[in-house]
Structure formats: C-alpha cells, structure tokens
Amino acid sequence: MSAKLATCGYLSADELAACLPASERMAKGPVAVIECVQDIPCNPCEQACPVHAITVGVPITSLPVLDAAKCIGCGVCIARCPGLAIFVIDGSRPGGEGTVQLPYEAWPLPQPGDAVVALDRRGQRVGDGTVEKVLNATAQDHTAVVTVRVPKELLNTVRAISVEGRAQS
C-alpha cells in the first residue's frame, strides 16, 4: 500500500503523476483516471471495461493499468470500483470548463444544475462546480456517478464534491 495513502488518506504527488493522463489525451475526450495503489485482490474494473482498456491480469493483486488510447471514457468502471478510485475526466470541451465524473455514495443525491463545492483528494475546497448529470442505475449497486463541470485547470484535482455543506466520502 502507498505510504502516503496509509498515513494521510490520499496519494502523494509522485503516485498521482503515474495515474494522470497526458494533457494531449485529455484534450481528445473523456478518459478514465485510475488512482488505485493498493495491491489487493480486486479486478471488477477490468471485467467492467467494454473495450478492454483496463488490465489487472495475473496475479489478481496487480495494480490496474489503463490503456488510455483504448479508453472511450464510458465511465462503467467508476461505480464498479469498490475503492472509489476511478474517475473520468473530459478536457475536450471548448471553452474553459471540462467535466469530472466521480463516484458518489452520500444521500441525498445532487441534482443536475446544483451548484457544488469542488474538493480535492484531501477534502479541501479548490473551487466551484455545477452538476451536469447523475446516474444511479440498479446495476451500479448504490454507487451513483455524478458528472460535475469545473474549470479545466481543476480536472486533475477535483475528486469529490460537497452539496450544501455535505462532504462526499
């Protein structure tokens, strides 16, 4: 397990550097970001990916590897990750905003159009966002996927939201 994750609850800058997609890939369209650094037996993300862009392989304790060129940014993997460690970011929109799709397990769910506080991995406020979409299908097993519009410079920073003072866990 990551030393930073074990002691502080979030990844170090070095660990994040290995997870984040290149800016050129982000500009092409939605792409998954897998922030998993735990060597545990887990592979639902690999099994959920419809285009086989995620590989865990053998042994099952290997860390998932994303082939960003294959990823279509569908977000199916987000709700399947029991560690809530997968996000989809989209920097391809014209203008200064992009989107972050994130897992959300708080209640009540935010609604499209809601103004939210954008939080970083430590739960610190980094800006404001607007909810665009909320998916909460039965197949997602009570993990909703919320799409939030934020300034593009925050796409690699925003990993949670707070609605009316409620922090997402």
UniProtKB/TrEMBL annotation:
Keywords: Iron, Iron-sulfur, Metal-binding
Organism: Anaeroselena agilis
Domain 4Fe-4S ferredoxin-type: 62-91
Record InterPro entries: 4Fe4S_Fe-S-bd (IPR017896), 4Fe4S_Fe_S_CS (IPR017900)
Pfam families the record matches: Fer4_7
Coiled coil: none
Protein's UniProt name: 4Fe-4S binding protein
